[in-house]
Task: structure prediction
Amino acid sequence: MNAEAVIRVLNRGLSIEYAGVIQFLQASSLVQGPYREVHAGFFRERSEASWKHGQKLGRWIVLLNGLPAVEPAPIKQSTELTEMLRQGLELEGEAHRTYLEALGLVADAAALRLFVEEMVQDERLDIDTFERLLGQKTVTVAAKEVKLKPA
Ligand SMILES: [Fe+2]
Result:
């Protein structure tokens, strides 16, 4: 395993997580409208999730003898809910791509691979969350009623 390359990619992920902490916290403060409380709570949770990811990344980077980055990736901002969600989706997508790239570098390190796989999974589920909020998910129901067969 090329530890330097892994540290570089994990640090890119850490910068994205820092951006998430700040971007989602600002969104939770700014969001307006009749469902403000719901969305403020949602964005606050996203901010906390990024913070938790940042903690884990920091641990692993130091374990690999690297120095955790301190600079956040570019932070996007808006006062409009749909735009905030689109920006959130972009951020989760960027994180997902970064951890997929890391996954390609850690095949022979079991514990590190498990950590990176969990990050990939978390970000993939986060992408789904934002896609649903943006109405980008289309699941159809074949029948309006489900009749159970008698036993
Ligand atoms: Fe994350």
